[in-house]
């Protein structure tokens, strides 16, 4: 468990997107509640995994954390500075310390540029080094991620999906960042390649003292890479806990349902997950344009009561750095005074 200082902190982050009135004949003024009051902290050197179903707001949150989106309200503190209050010019030095690895290695690389240009762009944009120095730096970065100098002058279409994602990783490392936000970095890759990229990211974290926010919908991958896990549902965080505690003893019913879907072979014979009842959630995820009142999960929750329909539960501490937002926590979990 990493008990170090907080590097990144989100405070009541909200992001609503205006719906165009012409889209599906929606009424003017409607908004998508993509992220709706998210607070979390990431400690220096740790990996915080963020999981949830497609459309729950994970990718929007990722972009808010590095200020690729401007929040509707709330704040993001990076290394003690509120970067959401800075002008575009003043935030530039912080951008060098925060980088992203994107989900689709086919779409995130410019097909018209050679690898030496793609990985070298961060140096060029920031005026770092001569042309020869940049080329040397790019070559060293490619070697770090398992490629070679022979790849310098090739175009993205000449690489496999796994190799393209390695190029994306090299580009993210170029300016020696402290934080990397990886937005589903292996979901577009073949299963046989996913483990290679995940292991590369773990090795790089140790070698370069990186801090990760690792976003995924694959609970097996998240378990393999994370120190702590935050579970999102419909724009809100419903549970945060150390990875082993979360997988062994979920407190929130939505976490319980997600974990019940992990195959036995993946959960492991000695894991409680291998004996966990399969929970099939009824109904569809509600629309983020018109989210439910009270607890966002109550329309699909088998434990829901009247209070869940009218009162949105706050995140409260359950000991050992676990927080959950539920009126009916599982396993007789009892709130505590501290983390």
Defining traits:
339 residues; alpha/beta; 8-stranded mixed sheet; 11 helices; 30% helix
Number of helices: 11
| End-to-end distance | 13 Å
Using only C-alpha atoms, the radius of gyration works out to 21 Å
Structural class, by secondary structure, is alpha/beta
**Average pLDDT:** 89
Low-confidence stretches: none
Q: Return the string of H and E elements.
A: EEEHEEHEHHHEHEHEEHHHHEE
What general outline do the C-alpha atoms trace?
globular
Helix content: 25-40%
Q: State which percent range the strand residues make up.
A: 15-25%
Give a count of the beta strands, DSSP E runs of length 2 or more: 12
* Oligomer classification: single chain
Would you kindly provide a written description of the structure presented here, covering whatever features stand out?
With 339 residues, this protein is an alpha/beta fold. It has helices spanning 58-65, 88-95, 115-125, 131-144, 161-173, 191-208, 219-225, 243-248, 253-260, 264-267, 306-310, and strands at residues 6-18, 31-43, 47-51, 73-78, 81-82, 98-101, 179-183, 211-215, 228-233, 236-242, 316-317, 323-324. The strands form 2 sheets. An 8-stranded mixed sheet has the order 6-7-8-3-9-10-12-11, with helices on both faces. Helix 4 (131-144) crosses helix 5 and helix 5 runs parallel beside helix 6 (191-208).
């Amino acid at each position: 468990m990493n008990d170090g200082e907080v590097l990144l902190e989100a405070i009541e982050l909200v992001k609503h997107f205006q719906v165009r009135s012409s889209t599906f004949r929606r009424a003017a003024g409607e908004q998508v509640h993509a992220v709706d009051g998210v607070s979390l902290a990431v400690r220096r050197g740790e990996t915080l995994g963020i999981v949830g179903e497609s459309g729950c707001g994970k990718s929007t949150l990722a972009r808010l954390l590095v200020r690729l989106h401007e929040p509707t309200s709330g704040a993001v503190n990076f290394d003690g500075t509120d970067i959401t209050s800075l002008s575009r010019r003043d935030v530039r030095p912080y951008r060098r310390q925060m980088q992203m690895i994107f989900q689709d290695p086919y779409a995130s690389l410019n097909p018209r540029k050679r690898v030496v240009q793609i990985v070298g762009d961060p140096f060029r944009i920031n005026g770092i080094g001569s042309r020869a120095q940049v080329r040397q730096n790019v070559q060293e970065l490619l070697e770090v991620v398992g490629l070679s100098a022979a790849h310098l002058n090739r175009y993205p279409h000449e690489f496999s999906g796994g190799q393209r994602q390695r190029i994306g990783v090299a580009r993210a490392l170029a300016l020696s960042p402290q934080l990397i936000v990886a937005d589903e970095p292996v979901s577009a890759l073949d299963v046989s390649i996913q483990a290679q990229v995940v292991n590369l990211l773990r090795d790089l974290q140790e070698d370069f003292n990186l801090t990760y926010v690792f976003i995924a919908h694959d609970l097996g991958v998240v378990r393999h890479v994370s120190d702590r896990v935050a579970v999102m549902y419909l724009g809100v965080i419903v549970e945060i806990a150390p990875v082993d505690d979360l997988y062994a003893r979920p407190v929130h019913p939505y976490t319980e349902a997600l974990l019940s879907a992990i195959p036995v072979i993946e959960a492991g014979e000695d894991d409680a997950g291998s004996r966990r009842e399969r929970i099939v959630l009824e109904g569809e995820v509600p629309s983020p344009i018109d989210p439910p009142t009270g607890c966002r999960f109550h329309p699909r929750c088998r434990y829901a009561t009247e209070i869940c329909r009218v009162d949105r539960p706050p995140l409260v501490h359950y000991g050992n750095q676990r927080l959950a937002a539920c009126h009916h926590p599982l396993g007789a979990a009892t709130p505590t005074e501290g983390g």
